[in-house]
Write a structure and sequence with these properties.
The chain has 65 residues and is mainly alpha-helical. The chain has one domain. It has two helices and two strands. The chain has a two-stranded antiparallel sheet. A hairpin with a 3-residue loop joins strand 1 (2-3) and strand 2 (7-8). It is globular and about 30 Å long. The relative contact order is 0.18.
Protein backbone atom coordinates (compact mmCIF):
# COMPACT_ATOMS: atom_id res chain seq x y z
CA UNK A 1 0.00 0.00 0.00
CA UNK A 2 1.16 3.53 -0.45
CA UNK A 3 0.62 7.22 0.02
CA UNK A 4 1.11 9.94 -2.62
CA UNK A 5 3.13 11.99 -0.10
CA UNK A 6 4.98 9.34 1.92
CA UNK A 7 5.35 6.58 -0.67
CA UNK A 8 5.26 2.98 0.54
CA UNK A 9 3.68 2.52 3.98
CA UNK A 10 5.34 -0.07 6.19
CA UNK A 11 3.08 -2.88 7.46
CA UNK A 12 4.25 -2.07 10.99
CA UNK A 13 2.73 1.43 10.71
CA UNK A 14 -0.57 -0.01 9.53
CA UNK A 15 -0.46 -2.56 12.35
CA UNK A 16 0.25 0.14 14.95
CA UNK A 17 -2.80 2.16 13.93
CA UNK A 18 -5.03 -0.92 13.60
CA UNK A 19 -3.97 -2.24 17.00
CA UNK A 20 -4.51 1.15 18.63
CA UNK A 21 -8.02 1.36 17.19
CA UNK A 22 -8.75 -2.24 18.22
CA UNK A 23 -7.60 -1.55 21.79
CA UNK A 24 -9.90 1.50 21.90
CA UNK A 25 -12.83 -0.81 21.24
CA UNK A 26 -13.26 -0.30 17.52
CA UNK A 27 -14.84 -3.51 16.24
CA UNK A 28 -14.42 -2.91 12.52
CA UNK A 29 -11.34 -1.70 10.65
CA UNK A 30 -11.38 -1.07 6.91
CA UNK A 31 -8.30 -0.78 4.76
CA UNK A 32 -8.55 1.07 1.46
CA UNK A 33 -6.31 1.70 -1.50
CA UNK A 34 -7.44 5.16 -2.51
CA UNK A 35 -4.63 5.90 -4.96
CA UNK A 36 -4.53 2.55 -6.77
CA UNK A 37 -1.05 1.30 -5.91
CA UNK A 38 -2.10 -1.77 -3.92
CA UNK A 39 -1.72 -5.16 -5.55
CA UNK A 40 -3.45 -8.41 -4.60
CA UNK A 41 -0.12 -9.64 -3.22
CA UNK A 42 0.54 -6.74 -0.89
CA UNK A 43 -3.10 -6.57 0.24
CA UNK A 44 -2.97 -10.29 1.12
CA UNK A 45 0.32 -9.75 2.93
CA UNK A 46 -0.95 -6.87 5.06
CA UNK A 47 -4.16 -8.72 5.92
CA UNK A 48 -2.24 -11.83 6.94
CA UNK A 49 0.23 -9.66 8.89
CA UNK A 50 -2.60 -8.01 10.80
CA UNK A 51 -4.67 -11.12 11.45
CA UNK A 52 -1.82 -13.35 12.56
CA UNK A 53 0.58 -10.90 14.17
CA UNK A 54 -1.71 -8.37 15.78
CA UNK A 55 -4.97 -10.14 16.46
CA UNK A 56 -3.61 -13.67 16.93
CA UNK A 57 -5.82 -15.21 14.26
CA UNK A 58 -4.76 -17.55 11.48
CA UNK A 59 -3.85 -16.20 8.08
CA UNK A 60 -6.97 -15.59 6.00
CA UNK A 61 -5.47 -15.27 2.51
CA UNK A 62 -8.05 -16.37 -0.03
CA UNK A 63 -10.96 -16.00 2.39
CA UNK A 64 -13.46 -13.17 2.20
CA UNK A 65 -13.44 -11.22 5.45
Amino acid sequence: MGCPLEGRIAPAKVAYVAKSLYEMGISEISLGDTIGVGTPGNVSFICCYLYSGIFGLGCCVGVAV
